Amino acid sequence: MPGEESLQRGWSHRPAALPRPARMVLPSLKLQELIQEIRGAKTQAQEREVIQKECAHIRAAFREGDAPQRHRQLAKLLYVHMLGYPAHFGQMECLKLIASPRFTDKRVGYLGAMLLLDERQDAHLLITNSIKNDLSQGTQPVQGLALCTLSTTGSAEMCRDLASEVEKLLLRPSPYVRKKAVLAAVHMIRKVPELSDIFLPPCTQLLHERHHGILMGAVTLITELCERSPAALTHFRQVVPQLVQILRTLVISGYSTEHSVAGVSDPFLQVQVLKLLRILGRNHEESSEAMNDMLAQVATNTDTSRNAGNAVLYETVLTIVDIRSASGLRVLAVNILGRFLLNNDKNIRYVALTSLLRLVQSDHSAVQRHRPTVVECLRETDASLSRRALELSLALVNSSNIRSMTQELQGFLEFCPVDLRADCASGILLAAERFAPTKRWHIDTIMRVLTTAGAHVRDDAVANLTQLIGGAEELHAYSVRRLYNALAADISQQPLVQVAAWCIGEYGELLLSESYEETEPLQVQEEEVLMLLEKVLQSHLSLPATRGYALTALMKLSTRFQGDNNRIRRVVSIYGSCLDIELQQRAVEYNALFRKYDHMRSAILEKMPLVEHGGPQDDEPGEGKEQPWSPKREVQSPTEPPTSNLLDLLDLLDSASGDAQPPPALDLMPGGSLLHLLDLPSNTPSLAPIPGLKVFDREGLQISLSFVRPPETPALLLITATASNTSKSDVTHFVFQAAVPKSFQLQLQIPSGDTVPAQGGPPITQVLRVLNPNKAPLRMRLRLAYNHFGQSVQEIFEGRNLSQKFTQDPVYHRGSKEDTSTSDIRILVFLAELPTSFPYLHSPPPPTGEIPTACPHL
């Protein structure tokens, strides 16, 4: 049929299906070909492309499980790993190769385990059984591979499991296996020190070996055992004669010529034996005595012209120093280090300086012989060498060489690097303080250091020098002239400027005196001195502390010089509006002295009293003791309580005493000296007692007043307020204030605390000084502020005469409840009616409304 024929023709004309083309698989490269391809890559991208293709072939080969070619694929992967590319997918193949019975597989497998596995990965534990089987049943090459792998990747668990097998291999006849076993034992001791008992017996036998590798490993193993086990240290002290004999053989006849370096017989073994002897002889008299002669022989017969000989000598020196060696042997060790200082190699000189610095305390006299060489090392251009030389030079300073060494160090200070100036300056100052032959030399030394490197000295250098000058009364004129000349020459060194300003302020009148014969008389006028201090104040180099010194010096010169003080007053008034709070406060106080208390200026600004250096008052200032003033000292101002009604308290008695005249200028303490004004130590006469008086008793809080009148000053009354608490709750934030009429003078000292403990605990005391020059009846208004039972309380009392009881509660204020969980200390120094001993209080109050406190600078 036509249709069928056409259908058949259609089927017959349908093209036949083409066969699927075979997948093109590039042949895998051999290791040598892979190395050539990678080295031939011109760019990093080409190198990565070659490595990615080959890694794909390696992965495919691993998946197909081609056992005969597995070690070749892993070898290529290890090379890729050495180039820094990831190869972690070959870890399991390493385990398979290690378990293989063929040596070619084991060799590559162990190498891969050492490179791809470590103890941080759990896969390394899977090779423990394979290593154990190879150690016990394998051939010597296989045992060597297993021991090397154990020494490289063995964890603490593997070491515990395989310690017995390694201990057996230490006594095998094959030197190759024993050497590998010793190295594996060293690794095990470092990982698990508890295994030391296992390796003690075979170590003694290993010292008889003639094989260099085994003997070297045995000495290293014994060293590790002695460092980690006291029992091993005691055990191996018996082999000291044997070690000494080994060292003698190395020094005299040599161990073997193939291990000699630059004519030195086996320096590596000598160093290891010396290190072991140092450990065995430390703190052991018998062992040290056994090795003394041999150490002297090594020290004298070793060639120092080569670096290998210097290494042996250095180890010999360390051994001599650490053991209980003879004194002559220690001197020999120091001399060896002295020869090292003359070596051209900087590394050897550095090692010598470091070692001498360790020996300077125990062998000071021996190290002193090399002092000129050490001083020469200060001029080294290498910063590390010069720093070590500086440290050693400072350690060599004593009372006999203080002058010469200080001169050398001061010369070094002038050209030393900036990072060494602080250490050098501090070292010179400390050495001068310890070994100064005279005070004048001490002052000259400190002044030279301040002139050369004033910006790098310690913070206490200024205070130390001012204290030193103040204590040397016979050198006041010399010091002030030297400092004046130094200040006129340079005002950039701030510590020097501060000392000079202090000294000029204290002893400025000596600049104008011509009675001092040791120096040439200065042709100085008062105006020149004032101009120099003004220059310091105006200099942009001056720190705020330096300006404070200069301002105080100007103020003190107002009482030292005989000329007009108008210039000083103008300068001081300028700084009354200074932005610096410290300078502003000081200037305001000084202005108040000029305006209202000029009659007391001479007494307040008199010379600072002498303070004994190093006395108990310098270590722990107590009550009533003066502390040397420093501008950098923090002023500990008491925390102020709320002052809402404080100013009203001052005006409570104005109406009753408005016509009273201000009292004359009288001292609060007998004698009229500044020591009494500032409560400094003085011989206070016995005080006549007056019966006390209880003024307050409420809710367990009691306040009593006791009175004492000094016989020499009848106008002065000392009142001690004592607050006690018998209730079950503490009285916190306790503040005691007082006010008197203007005809009186009142000073409140700092209270002993601000919390009155409950149930009869230690009371709080506070002293009030009241001066009554007119002998008028004393009227006093007292104010209490405290927290009790969770409430804030304020109470005011007023009394006409102290012989009568105060009328309680004329004015009574009880505040709202406040949180009293905090017990921060609030101490108020409240000065009523501005007594003449603190004239600065007439200045305007601070903008914050705080109560001014006693100025610590006068």
Q: Can you summarize this structure?
A:
This protein is 51% helix and 9% strand.
Spatial strand order of the main sheet: 1-2-3-6-5
Output the radius of gyration. 45 Å
Approximate helicity band? 40-55%
> Can you give the mean pLDDT?
78
The counted number of beta strands is: 9
**Oligomeric assembly:** single chain
For the biggest sheet, the summary is:
5 strands, antiparallel
Given helix and strand content, the structural type is alpha+beta
Question: Globular, elongated, flat, extended or rod-shaped: what is the shape?
Answer: elongated
Separation of the first and last Cα atoms: 139 Å
* Sequence stretches where pLDDT stays below 50 over 5 or more residues: 1-25, 613-688, 803-858
Q: How much of the residues is beta strand, in percent?
A: 5-15%
Number of helices: 36
Protein name: AP-1 complex subunit gamma
Domain GAE: 688-803
Pfam families: Adaptin_N, Alpha_adaptinC2
Membrane topology: Peripheral membrane protein
Strands, helices and their partners?
Blueprint: H1 2-13, H2 31-40, H3 44-64, H4 70-82, H5 91-99, H6 103-116, H7 128-137, H8 140-153, H9 156-169, H10 175-191, H11 196-206, H12 212-228, H13 230-236, H14 240-252, H15 267-281, H16 285-301, H17 307-322, H18 327-340, H19 346-359, H20 364-368, H21 371-376, H22 383-396, H23 402-415, H24 418-435, H25 439-453, H26 461-471, H27 476-489, H28 494-507, H29 526-538, H30 544-560, H31 566-574, H32 581-595, H33 601-604, H34 616-619, H35 646-650, H36 674-677, E1 688-698, E2 701-709, E3 716-725, E4 732-739, E5 745-748, E6 764-771, E7 780-788, E8 791-799, E9 807-817
Antiparallel strand pairs: 1-2, 2-3, 3-6, 4-7, 5-6, 7-8, 8-9
Helix pairs in contact: 2-3, 3-4, 4-6, 5-6, 6-8, 7-8, 7-9, 8-10, 9-10, 10-12, 11-12, 12-13, 12-15, 14-15, 14-16, 15-17, 16-17, 16-18, 17-18, 18-19, 19-22, 23-24, 23-25, 24-25, 25-26, 26-28, 27-28, 28-30, 29-30, 30-31, 30-32, 31-32
